[in-house]
Amino acid sequence: MAFDGETPVAWIRGQMSDPVTFYLQTGGVRPGNRRARWMKPTYLHLLAYLERLGYERVTSRHEPDNAAILILQLRLGFVVDGVVLDERFGPLVSMVKHLHPDQRDEYRQRFRLSAHDQ
Ligand SMILES: CC(C)(COP(=O)(O)OP(=O)(O)OC[C@H]1O[C@@H](n2cnc3c(N)ncnc32)[C@H](O)[C@@H]1OP(=O)(O)O)[C@@H](O)C(=O)NCCC(=O)NCCS
């Protein structure tokens, strides 16, 4: 949760889905405060905290046309790892971020991904 004074502006909520994975269930920024760099620092703070707790990967699912969250997470080092059909929400893009560089390298080698500028 991030505050502007005493007003809550940005939040993220999630839970452990297995001993090394934290699932980001939902998050948002108040409509009048979007595109003002509230969510990016909130993510950075949460990701650092999750890493300190011992998590190795962070996952999430998003509607395919939600450019704002997809672009934000791609720019924070998440990758797309699939598309799922959820009977409640329809098609969702699945994303994952490896919190440790060696695991990200292993993932890239396993799928023979070529190097890209981040
Ligand atoms: C997605 C959301 C949380 C982004 O929050 P935000 O505070 O506006 O994001 P930030 O200002 O921190 O943006 C950081 C980066 O994300 C990307 N981004 C954010 N909003 C974007 C948009 N509308 N279109 C494209 N890129 C966007 C940009 O790369 C941006 O960096 P830049 O400002 O240098 O271009 C906000 O739009 C929101 O609350 N949306 C509705 C709720 C929602 O969809 N939540 C996710 C549910 S899964």
UniProtKB/TrEMBL annotation:
Annotated organism of origin: Cryptosporangium japonicum
Domain N-acetyltransferase positions: 1-100
InterPro entries: Acyl_CoA_acyltransferase (IPR016181), GNAT_dom (IPR000182)
Identification of the protein by name: N-acetyltransferase domain-containing protein
Species classification: Bacteria, Bacillati, Actinomycetota, Actinomycetes, Cryptosporangiales
Gene3D superfamilies: 3.40.630.30
Domain of life: Bacteria
